[in-house]
Amino acid sequence: MSPEPKIAVRRRRAVPRLFHGADLAEDAFLNAPFGLFARQKIKAMEGRRLLWAEREIEDAQFQPASLDLRISKEAFRVRASFLPGRERSVRDRLKSLNAEPVSLAGAGRLDIFTRLIVDGSEAFDDVPLDYRGELWLEISPRSFSVRVREGSKLSQIRFRNRNSQHMEKYTFALTDDEIRKKHDETPLVDGDLNLREGVVLRVDLSGAGHEIVGYRAIKNSDVIDISRVAGYAAEDFWEPIYARPDGRLILDPGEFYILASREKLQIPADLAAEMAPIDPAIGEFRVHYAGFFDPGFGQGPDGAPCARAVLEVRSRDVPFLLEDGQPVGRLVYEKLAGAADELYGAGAASNYQGQGLKLSKHFRDFKAP
Q1: Which of 157, 186, 281, 309 is deepest in the core (most CB within 10 A)?
Q2: Which residues share a beta bridge with 305?
Q3: What single DSSP character describes residue 26?
Q4: What is the DSSP string of 2-25?
């Protein structure tokens, strides 16, 4: 898949069956407190056939508060992004668009834009209550040509338990007051707590003792196979950005950058978080297209925050000046319905625990010339 204005839609492996509150009340298993399901609850869903896949779900797919989704061997190349609309399936829409089949049989920080589509949906990245059917993934590479195959994992899904009091709620995020109280119990960041419908994160362009403060993607590089871990030399795909005395960086339109937050952070065991865009009025750029932070992320051995948030940054339509310490994103938090039986960092697949400025797991450490 090359970084062209074409978008491929690929079916996800996991097929959920989600139920309304009345159905949940009849099931003692799902009669849990309100909040996101932790790993063991998601595994139990699969065991009870509330969630199933064409091929057995692998244990490594179960994350502390989410499920990694695999793509199947079926894929289509389409000319534009779309939503099926009410009472229409994704397959119907693909047929009307004359989508070109692409076989994948046998075949995160990579600037791959992905969005979820489900039958009858009028919004991306949402699976409605009582949905029974396939999940589809829209994939659009932006900077690199990438190679995917059946079984590749490009996104995750979370499951939320509701009761009758929450059926009409649109947002489930903690309020700023709730976040402040949680921070008083367990520090969420290592510095001052800045709140704006979530915890505000600021960009680090000072170097903090290191010369490299970010990376800019090199276009027209070789193809990246997303299944290869540490398979590529970072210098073949990324240009290092060095700290300037004035702590500034100009973002050029169409370019993709990897930067890091000034704050170190941690996610307590009873919460999960997601990176959300900062108010568009603050700047003409977008940070971290989608990012789940699982419970346990960034927890240091002394109980203090130890990991920085890696920021995927792209300017919109005009060059934009970033300065050290400028707000660039925010973390939105949700409660878990129950404590996870395994926290991020406990397993071998926790690639980003304790991270600073870091590229994705596909690249070996950067070697400056």
Answers
A1: 309
A2: 299
A3: T
A4: -SSS-EEEEEESEEEB---HHHHH
The distance between the two most distant Cα atoms of the chain, rounded to a whole number of Å, is 64
pLDDT of residue 294: 92
CA atoms within 13 Å, Cβ hemisphere of 27: 16
Confidence tier at 3 by pLDDT (50, 70, 90): very low
Question: How high is the pLDDT of residue 315?
Answer: 79
Could you give the CA distance from residue 268 to residue 94 in angstroms, rounded to a whole number?
A: 42
What is the rounded distance in angstroms from the CA atom of residue 114 to the CA atom of residue 140? 6
* Top-confidence residue, 249 or 208: 249
State the fold for domain 7-166.
Deoxyuridine 5'-Triphosphate Nucleotidohydrolase; Chain A (2.70.40)
Q: Do domains 7-166 and 176-364 have the same CATH topology?
A: yes
Q: Which residue has the higher pLDDT, 332 or 348?
A: 332
Amino acid in position 49: R
Neighbours of 207 (CB within 10 A): 15
Neighbours of 79 (CB within 10 A): 12
Cβ neighbors of 339 (< 8 A, separation 6 or more) are: 38, 269, 270, 295
Domain at 176-364: CATH architecture? Distorted Sandwich (2.70)
Q: Which pLDDT score, from 0 to 100, does residue 324 have?
A: 95
Task: Indicate the DSSP class of residue 183.
Answer: H
**Which are the contacts of 6, defined by CB distance < 8 A and separation ≥ 6?**
77, 78, 79, 140
Domain boundaries, the chain: 7-166, 176-364
Backbone angles phi, psi at 242, to 5 degrees: -95, 150
Rg (CA), the chain: 21
> How many Å apart are CA 221 and CA 271, to the nearest integer?
39
Residue 74 CA to residue 247 CA, distance in Å, equals: 47
Q: How far is CA 242 from CA 277, 321, 360, in A?
A: 25, 15, 19
Condensed to tens digits (0 to 9), the pLDDT of residues 141-190 reads: 777 777 777 888 888 899 888 766 666 665 688 999 999 999 999 999 99
